[in-house]
Design a protein that fits this description.
The chain has two helices and two strands. It is mainly alpha-helical and 80 residues long. It has a domain at 21-74. A two-stranded antiparallel sheet has the order 1-2.
Length: 80
């Protein structure tokens, strides 16, 4: 009998990054703020958010931010 159950363990790939100090500082700050236990956790969350934002913008939507005074303004994340 052949077991056709799909393994719950997903294949992973190792990625090695060289980051400038400013980027490393950002990574450490995000780890602290989000209480992430690993660099990988921060990076996976960042990739999910980045993908979601790009999907919305490609769909013609705008990302908006509500300021402390209640004013809603566009968030210009992709401005070069």
């Amino acid at each position: 009998m052949v077991d056709t159950a799909v393994s719950s363990k997903k294949a992973t790939r190792r990625v090695q990054l060289e980051l400038p100090q400013r980027s490393m500082d950002r990574l450490l700050k995000l780890m602290d703020i989000t209480e992430a236990s690993t660099y990988a956790e921060v990076m996976k969350n960042a990739l999910r958010m980045y993908e979601a934002i790009i999907d919305e913008v490609e769909d013609g939507k705008e990302i908006m931010i509500k300021e402390k005074d209640g004013n809603i303004v566009p968030f210009h994340i992709f401005v070069s």
